[in-house]
């Protein structure tokens, strides 16, 4: 089986040096609209491992007091999102293994590379790399980096690893044995979609993801509130000097098992840190600035087209939540509004996904 589109963004980073890791508004309590209990649709029982996220109106995007907010997160705007179920955790190795065993699915990182397909999504006249590089694999964090000359040169702390995939997260000699409860990684967008189809689920929109991350809140910076000092107690992120020294003050040097930190107010784990989470929205740096906020925004599906001037040749989707590599001195993506683009055929050792289900999806299956 050959890879569709281009190789993982890891390999593209080696070829093009493109990769990026780089208020509170009071809730309206005067609303008088009443819902007729007779007309309220029944909410089915939550499937095992999922949490109900209530319908609500909240402030999506960067909050006024967020010192780390980036232009693509602005301006903040009110959106309304209907209720849905969301996985309490990101998909684990155990869950993904069950899917693969049932379907014999082969992930992008495990597939043969087709240079003719790959070069279609690279800058014109990009030279073909050596065959030793054009081998199935994925991007892993370079745990041995001890000095950085230029923080814009992301290749200093990323390594293309032949043989890295969800079964072998650190390369061919590594294993997920004993790591059933760790997030599955090295999965690309099509891999996540394939899992969703098998599980009768779908990926969340960015608005749904932020609604879930807010929990019972409607306008906070973090999943636990607005206190940045609580970061280490609530999320697996980087402490120390990024990317050369991680002091592991939060208990983990790199990736951690799911549920290693407290859930948010509605029972969702790791909505900040540990691994990035793929959403269904296209990544477009101008999406928020071009939104028409003169009318209500209900269940938004994101931008109609992808756009990233730093990666113009790739179709990218929005990732949310940050990862174990996020640090305040660099990307600070442990905030609810933070987002990053990832190409459709790219995976790494710090990206996973979780799924959602609308009540009608569950009813239709029955």
How much helix is in the residues? 10-25%
Q: Helical region count? A: 7
Query: What's the overall average pLDDT, rounded?
Result: 85
Low-pLDDT regions: 2-39
- Identify the overall geometry: globular
Question: Helix and strand string, N-terminal first?
Answer: HEEEEHHEEHHHEEEEEEEH
Sheet of most strands: 4 strands, mixed
> In which order are the strands of the major sheet placed?
11-10-9-12
Radius of gyration, Cα only, in angstroms?
Answer: 20 Å
Number of strands: 13
Structural class: alpha+beta
Termini separation comes to 34 Å
Strand content: 5-15%
How do you describe this structure in short?
By secondary structure, the chain is α+β, with helices and mostly antiparallel strands. It contains seven helices and 13 strands.
List keywords for this structure.
three-stranded antiparallel beta sheet; disordered N terminus; 7 helices; 366 residues; alpha+beta; four-stranded mixed beta sheet; 15% helix
Task: Walk me through the structure.
By secondary structure, the protein is α+β, with helices and mostly antiparallel strands. It has helices at residues 9-16, 93-103, 115-118, 189-199, 206-214, 231-234, 359-365; strands at 50-53, 56-60, 77-81, 84-87, 137-141, 158-162, 240-241, 245-246, 276-282, 316-320, 339-343, 351-352, 356-357. A 4-stranded mixed beta sheet has the order 11-10-9-12, with no helix packed on it. A 3-stranded antiparallel beta sheet has the order 1-4-13. A hairpin with a 3-residue loop joins strand 7 (240-241) and strand 8.
């Amino acid at each position: 089986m050959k890879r569709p589109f281009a190789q993982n963004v890891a390999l593209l980073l080696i070829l093009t040096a493109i990769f990026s890791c780089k208020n509170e508004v009071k809730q309206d309590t005067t609303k008088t609209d009443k819902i007729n209990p007779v007309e309220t649709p029944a909410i089915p029982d939550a499937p095992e491992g999922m949490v109900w996220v209530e319908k609500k109106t909240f402030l999506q995007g960067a909050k006024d007091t967020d010192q780390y907010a980036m232009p693509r997160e602005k301006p903040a705007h009110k959106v309304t999102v209907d209720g849905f179920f969301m996985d309490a955790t990101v998909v684990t190795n155990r869950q993904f293994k069950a899917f693969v065993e049932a379907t014999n699915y082969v992930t992008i990182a495990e597939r043969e590379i087709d240079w003719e397909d790959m070069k279609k999504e690279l800058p014109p006249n990009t030279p073909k790399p050596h065959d030793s590089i054009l081998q199935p694999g994925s991007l892993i964090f370079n745990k041995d980096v001890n000095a950085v000359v230029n923080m814009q040169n992301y290749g200093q702390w990323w390594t293309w690893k032949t043989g890295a995939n969800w079964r072998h997260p650190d390369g061919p000699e590594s294993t997920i044995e004993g790591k059933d409860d760790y997030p599955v990684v090295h999965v690309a967008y099509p891999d996540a979609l394939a899992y969703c189809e098998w599980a009768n689920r779908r990926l969340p929109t960015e608005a749904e993801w932020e609604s879930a991350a807010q929990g019972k809140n409607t306008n906070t910076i973090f999943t636990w509130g607005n206190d940045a000092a609580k970061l280490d107690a609530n999320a697996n992120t980087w402490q120390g000097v990024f990317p050369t020294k991680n002091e592991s003050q939060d208990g983990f040097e790199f990736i951690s098992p799911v549920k290693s930190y407290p859930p948010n107010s509605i029972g969702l784990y790791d909505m900040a840190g540990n691994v990035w989470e793929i959403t269904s929205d296209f990544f477009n740096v101008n999406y928020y600035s071009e939104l028409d906020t003169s009318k209500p925004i209900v269940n938004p599906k994101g931008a109609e087209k992808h756009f990233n001037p730093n990666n113009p040749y790739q179709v990218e989707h929005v990732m949310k939540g940050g990862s174990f590599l996020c640090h305040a001195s660099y990307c600070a993506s442990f905030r609810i509004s933070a987002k990053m683009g990832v190409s459709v055929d790219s995976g790494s050792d710090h990206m996973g996904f979780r799924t959602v289900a609308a009540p009608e999806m569950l009813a239709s299956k029955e």
